[in-house]
Specification:
Helix content: 25-40%
Structural class: alpha+beta
Largest sheet: 10 strands, antiparallel
């Protein structure tokens, strides 16, 4: 009899846990339904990639790209071409050997790189580039729908962009002439893009 009660209790606990997991999964699916390339900016705030038409100006430059995540750091060259038709990024090592690429247009997103784990989705690379290069009003509108704020501050030749959740800064982008720094405080990573001199 005691064993039956213990078994019944275990089944009840499993049922409750399963119900909770299904509820969480259902919420996540509902949040991303209708999104082509969903990105979780925080663990609960999700947005879709913005259309290429919101790119601010044009870029056709070679950058020195350095970054860090936890205790790991990397350094590569990044050739970027981007405008309102799409974003094209090629990663190269010091010898000019292809280390990966990302393409984002209105029809397609592709990302392949030996530098990053296969589990990393291309939209998570693309979104940081969008936060840095896209029109502020388009970024702000997308983030506001998800319950986040986008703050832009101009001081001299420095533009600072911040993604905020209440008073907490999730990500900060600092743009100066020929250089961009992206720091994600929530996920604990940082990118630095410095335009290579001709």
């Amino acid at each position: 009899m005691k064993m039956q009660k213990t078994y019944a209790r275990a089944v009840a606990v499993l049922f409750v846990c399963s119900a909770l997991l299904l509820a969480v999964a259902s919420c996540a699916t509902t949040k991303t339904r209708g999104m082509q390339y969903p990105v979780y900016v925080t663990n609960t705030n999700v947005i879709d990639l913005l259309a290429p038409e919101y790119f601010d100006g044009t870029v056709d430059s070679l950058y020195l790209l350095s970054g860090s995540f936890g205790g790991t750091s990397f350094f590569v060259q990044a050739f970027m071409q981007a405008d309102q038709s799409g974003m094209f990024l090629t990663l190269l090592n010091d010898f000019g050997v292809d280390m990966g690429s990302m393409t984002y247009t209105s029809e397609n997103l592709s990302f392949d790189s030996a530098m990053f784990p296969k589990s990393l989705k291309g939209q998570y690379i693309a979104i940081d580039m969008q936060f840095a290069f896209y029109k502020p009003e388009a970024i702000a509108a997308a983030l506001q729908k998800s319950g986040l704020d986008f703050v832009v501050e101009q001081t001299g030749g420095i533009e600072m962009r911040k993604i905020m959740k209440g008073k907490k800064c999730i990500e900060e982008i600092v743009k100066t002439r020929g250089a961009i720094q992206i720091v994600n405080y929530l996920r604990g990573y940082e990118y630095n893009l410095v335009e290579a001199q001709n």
